[in-house]
Amino acid sequence: MAKISISLPSELVRFVDNHVENRSALIEGLLEQWKRHQEDELLAEACTAVDELNLGWEPEWQNAAIMDLEASGL
Fold this sequence. Notes:
Blueprint: H1 10-19, H2 23-53, H3 59-72
């Protein structure tokens, strides 16, 4: 696993330390969440592009895609 260093204001470090046991795990979790969000946005854009092409999706497929998108929180 690669290591990185970041600089944060002391007050933010104190805040984080008061609320979590492992600040590295918090940062890793936030970055993973951000990555998933970015991937979900790209998928939503791709779905929109396919929908605009009007390729004749079956209504069941389209409803499933809409439900998946809504479940992702976008």
